[in-house]
Structures are given as structure tokens and as C-alpha cells.
Amino acid sequence: MKAGIIVFPGTNCDRDTFEACSFFGWECRYIWHNETDLNNLDAIFLPGGFSYGDYICSGRLAKFSPIIQEVKNFIKRKQGIIIGICNGFQILCETKLLPGVLTTNINNKFICDDTVLTFQNTEITLPIAHKEGRYIAPKGKNLCNMMFLQYKNNPNGSDYDIAGLYDRENKILAMMPHPERAVFKETGLTDGRKIFEFIQKELNK
Amino acid sequence: MTQLYKNLGLSDLEYEEIKKRLKREPNELETYLFSAMWSEHCGYKHSKKYISMFPKKNAICAQENSGGIGIGEHVIFFKAESHNHPSAVEPFQGAATGIGGIIRDILTLGARPIALLNSLKFGSLQEGRNKYLLDGVVKGISSYGNSTGIPTIGGETGFEDCFSLSPLVNVLAVGIVKKSDIKKSSAMPGGIVMLLGSYTGKDGIHGASFASKELKKDKKEDKLSVQIADPFTKKVVIEATLEILKSEGIIAAQDCGAAGLLSSTSEMAYKGNCGMELYLDKVHLREHDMKPWEIMLSESQERMVFIVKPNFVQEITNIANKYDIKISEIGKTIEQKEYRIFFNGNMEANIPPEVLNNCITYDLKDSEPNYINEYKRKTYKELPLQKQNIIDILKCHDIASKKYIYSQYDYTVGNRTLTKPESTSSSGLWIKEENKFIAFTMDSNPRQCFLNPYEGSVNTVYEAFRNITASGFKPSGITDCLNFASPEDIGVQYQFVKSVEGISKACIELNIPVVSGNVSFYNETPDNKIYPTPVIGMMGISENNIFKNSIKENDFVYLIGKDIDEKTYTGGSLYQKLFYNFTGGEIDTVNSELELKLSTFILQMINKNNISGCNDISKGGLFISLFELLHNAKKGFKGDIINIKEGQKALFGEITGRYIITSHRTLEEEMKKNLIPYRFLGKIQSETLEFNDFRFNIKELFDIYEKAFESELNS
Prior knowledge:
heterodimer, A: alpha/beta, Rossmann fold, nine-stranded mixed sheet, two-stranded antiparallel sheet, 11 strands, 29% strand, B: alpha+beta, Phosphoribosyl-aminoimidazole Synthetase, Chain A, domain 2, 3 domains, seven-stranded mixed sheet
């Protein structure tokens, strides 16, 4: 399993994502935002952070970067899976690779907390840390088969308690919570492993 | 010239001294340079003599921007710094740039910043301005810290009228670097001076001298002295700097903090015992009409200075280009011990670095001011304990949960954070590089330090010591932020000298060094001086354990250490201020032998897995310490905790040298064997909190504690 982790100026969860992937024995490399080579990769991560400072709004500027065009080709070629976490989810919505938008939390503040989620009919706990994580669904689109992760106590006002979406056909997975921060037992939560195991399973399909 | 140096804040005496050392009159530009380097903020002229007495044994690089503690092959650097004055004027930018500054102090050693903590003080939230300040400061820290990807793992927030309009914003940064990769700040001749980062503009000019005077009532003029933060550039500068510092072409590195380019470059020359030439027309500028003194004194954020071996200039430039950050060659280091400033080909200043960097120092008087005795003799009449007292103390802003604040900080980024803020007495980090654990706490006790600056400061160090101990770590060093009013006031001089002596004494007893620190004077408005507030940031190390609260029903609960009786001094306790608006009396003092014995015992018990919960007893006394344990465990309690007639004093009195521990079994045998003084308090149960004649639904108390602070800020 080979994972590429895209780094924009302002990305700040790249190292955490790298470490988490390495924990599962995945071979990882960083991809700088103006590179264009995604060859030999099975999984592409768009990690959390504030790409290009998130000026204007989260994820808005990243969509103009050279690497995003390559990400689109990666999807077209059905080369593997794309995983957007936090800012990565925002970028995927901004580029219209996923439906809907992410906007400022209902309390208008940054929220850092552990949050209970429904994932494949079980409850898991993952950390969240975002200011613009309130998912607004597009009108008239049925998202039922895309919802793969839902908040139990919706912390940010997201429509349908949506914490993450999965476009199974195009293999685009995205979520606001941070599974990469819930892998190592030293730091407490380990439910993030279930998300990584899920990614592995989806790739093997 | 007379008018100029006076306007710039130099005294006649200082100006005479400059002339004597230069053997001539300084010119206009040189006068500007001296006014900044000889300001309190850069020159430490009132504090240098005293802070040099702090113990430094076992500290690494204590003479650098930040000092550190070794852990295996690595060094943990940590330093606290204040950004009080800017935050009083412009809370968002003030707090944000404070974080920016302290991060650079860590970064410049080649260390990756891995955590932030803060200690905040405000006036009463009944006043709208204080609420505005708190909200702005928290947003500033949140916006800045979160974007840089450095977790804000803990801190403290306190309230006292003396901080109204003079808030304290103290920030602590932690970084890690391999011992062999540490970069220092002393230059060598034959190097190229390179400036990396933001364009130099007119913001923050005179920041150093601004921080060295009291705030005026009309703040308009002061606003120009506040720097502007850019967290995005910061994050990129961090990554670029860490990559640049890995190059063997780097001779020395320094961040541009107070007094900008001037202090960073002249310090490097001074420490390296060499000279430097700077060509100001080569500095990349944001505004084009800047005068030489403006370029030298600008405190534009996100700038780093490197001394580079000439054949590595291209390599360093390439790294900066990769990150799209501007870098300029702005000068060179020379053998002659002269600091020369050129502008458009003309030499505009030429000063020996040791004159510029060795400012005049003052002796402080340590005669006790009258208020000390006056306050010591003050008394009040204590009323019987009421059920409402419990509710009131839980609601009080010093005690109530600060989730409103910490949930705005990203405390989990970095995959190192061991526990949630407020869930343990100190904030732990996983040092993956060594597979060990460290913890930090920030503590202060302004009321006790006001009543007794010496013993209050000793108590503050020990409070930090107990916080580190109670979460299972062995204390290993401190940093401090010394916040005081004007050092020109005799009473403040006494407070400062005594406080420094107290901190030194405590650290010597505990055998830990003061690795770094910061002094902030002039924290006052025309109507109001702050209480003397030394803030202690302490680090602890643990080889193996991650001690987590595992309290169960029927666990035994003990008070260990000192107990309160009728005669115990509890001056400075929060409940006295809260219930009686009283601050006075004598404060309790530390018994260091007992403290060390308790700490050893607790760490032993934790290692043997004998205790299920531990908390130190500080603000809010025995009751609040117990309540915090129950809140984290989501449990109740039944027992007898009031042992004397004065119920309030028993529950809320604040003294040193005590903890609460809980265990699944009785620990009496162990405590007797180790000669630990103890009292059995009761047992853990589920739904209710019952003690003596009082009974509460614990969930209702949790609710009060969790919501009080947030509802005040939203009202």
C-alpha cells in the first residue's frame, strides 16, 4: 500500500497523517503542492490545516493548485482512493469533487473536542478541530448512500449530522474528524484505526 | 539631540553613560538604536542583576533565546514570554503576535515547536472592556496557534480587579531538537547576514520602548506600536526555517523579536565577539519611504536572521524559494568589533556591539513597603458555611470550567497530547523520539505574591511542583514570566527583588534550574498597579507511565500532607475575596522537606499502580480539589471533610503541601510506613456528593461548574 500526502503551504496535519499511515505499514511520501506526479500511489491524502492560509474561505485557493488537477486525473483513471481530512474535506467540496459546502460552525467558533460518531452501525470517538465544519447539503440531492460518518451530538450544526461523505463509485472519502489523531494508544483514542482499516478494505475491493 | 533622546525614553544619566562609553555624542540614528537596546524590554536594566542569580544547573543553552532540558538524545526547549502591553491595546493582534514571538525563540535554536500553553489574567468580567479583552486574546491565540499546527495544551485564566485594563498575556512554547542539531546565536567573522520572511514595514516600531512604559489613558497613539500577525506566513516560515537550519552552512540564527533587526543582528555580533556591516537598502521593505531607524527598529513579524557561510548562500536561497518566502543578503560579519549601518552607500552608524548590548543596570531597593504590614494585620469575621457558598465558588470565574476557552484551541494536533485540558493537573506530551513523556503547567498566585512577595513566589513554584507531581511526572525545570508594575516605584522594587529571591530559593531546594524567562514591567494604568505576578512554567519528565484517572465507586479518598486547623494562616485564599471582598492576613509558607516527601511518595504509588486518582490542592482549597477529581471521574462522594468549626476555612482555605489521593484499597499501611501525614476523607460513590451535613446532586454541581463561565461570556 502506497500513500501520498499532499502538502500545501499552511497544511499542518501532514506529519500526523504520515505517522498514522506508517503505523499501518503503508509506504508514504509527501507531495509538495506544485508537484504533479501521483504515479504508483494507491491512496492520496489531503490532510488538515489551512492551505494557503485559507484566505477568502477554507479550501478556496487550494483548488487552483497544479496538484488538484492531477488529483482529478487520479480519480478519472480510477487509480486508487482519495482521502480528505478536515481542510481536505473543505478542498474536495470547493473543487466540487464532493457535493455540498462546509461553512462556519453554528456557534461561530473554532471547536476542539472529542466527538462520538456513528460509523458502520457502531459508535466511535474521534477528535474534531475546526472552525468551518458545518456541512450544508445541496438541495434536492439524495446523500443517503454517501453518508459514512455521522455525529451523534452534532457539534457544529451540520445537515443530517454529516461528519463525512464517501463517494463509493469514485472512491472519494472525506471527513471533518481526525482519524490520524486517534491511532496511537499513547495519546488516548484509538478509534481512528477503524477508518484506516476501512480505507484499506475499500482499496482491496 | 536633547529633545530626541528624552522623547525616546532615555534618561540624562543613561545618555551621559552612552557618551562616556562611545567617547563621543551618538548621532541621530545611533540615538534611536540606543533608545531601543537600552530600553527595559531589551536591556533588562532594572532586572538583569537579580535574574542572574537564578540557578542554572542542568539547563542546556540557558544563555540562548530559550534554555532547555535534556531527554535522551534530544533537548526540550521551553520559554515563557509576556505580551501584556500590546494585548491591552489590541487584544487579538497582541496575543497572536505574542505567540509568534515565543515560537520564534524556540525555532531559532533549530527546535520544532510542539506545544503552547498560556497564563491569562483579566479584570472582572462584569466590565464590558474586560470581556472584550478576554474574547480578543482567546481568539488571537486560537487563530494563530491553530493555524501554525502547534497544539495549545493547557494554561490558566485568573481574575483580579488589578488586571482591569492591564491584562496579562503570558505564553509558553515548547520545542524539541536533537542535541547535535542545536543552532546557536553567536556569529563568526566572514559570514553573510541573510534576512528571511515578511517584508519589513512600519508596524511595531518602538515596540520595545512601548513595552517599557505604563499605558496612557488615550490608547490611539499606542496602537501604532502593536505588530500585526500573519499566521499563514508564520507556518511557512517555521517549515522553511527548520529546513534551512538543517544546512551545515548556517553559522548562527536569531529571530527578529523586540527591536527587530537591530537587536537580533547586534546580539549575534556581540555574542560572537565580532562585528557586522548591514546594508539597509538591501532589506526587503513593505513601504518604500522608510528611514534607516525605522528599518532597524521595525517589529514586523515572521522574520528570521541567519549568518551563512558564503558558499552556502545559494543553497539557503533555494530553500526559501521553494517555500515562496523572500530572503535577502543584507550584510556580512567582520573581524573588527564594530556594528556598522550603511544606507545608500553612507555609513550612518558605527557602534561597538558591546556598548550597544550592555546597557546600564540599576540597583533596586528592597525595603519593605508599608502596605505589607498593614495588610498582614487586616482581619474579617468568617460566617458559618452555607450550601450557597458551594454553588458560588463553583460559579466563580477563577474556578468554573474554562471549556469555553480551551475548546477554541486545537490541543490535539501533532499526535502528542496525552490528556484533555482540565482533566489532569498538568498537560502531558508524548515524546515519540525517545518514547518518554513530559508535562507542563503554568501557575501563578497574584494575591499571595501581593501579601508576601517572597513566600508567595516560593508558593507559586511549589504549586507548579505539585501540579507536575500529581499527574505522575518528576519536575525537571522551570521558565518564568515576571509581571510587575513600574520598577521606578520603590514598593515594586521590593516586590520584584523578593519574588526573584523566592523563586531562586524554591528552585535550589527542588534542585531544578530556571532554563529561561522574561520580565515585564510597567503593567499599570494611571489608576491601577497590578499585583506582583510571577508566572511559573514547569516541566516534568516521566520515563514510562501515562497516569490516568481511573477512579471507581468505593475508592478510598485521602488528604495527604498538611491539614488546616484553627490557627492555620490562609491569607490570599480565593474564598475570602469572593465572600468577603477581603485580601489580607498572613499566607501559609512551604515546608520543603514535607513537599519532597509527598512528591516521592506519590510518584512511588503511581509507579506501583496503587492510586486511582490524584490532585493537588490549590485554588479553592480542599473542596475544589476533590470536586475536580469527581468531575473528571463523573462520580460522587460520601465522607467527612470538615474537621474544624470554620467550615469555609476547612473547605476552601488555601495552604501549601497537600494533595488528595484516591485508591481502590486502603493505603494506610503505606502512608504510615513512609511517615506521610494523612486523613481519611471518605469514599467515592455514584450520584451524590455528601459530606458532614451537606448533600448535593453531583450532576447539578457539574452542570453549574461547566456552564457558569460560558454563560457569563455569552451574556
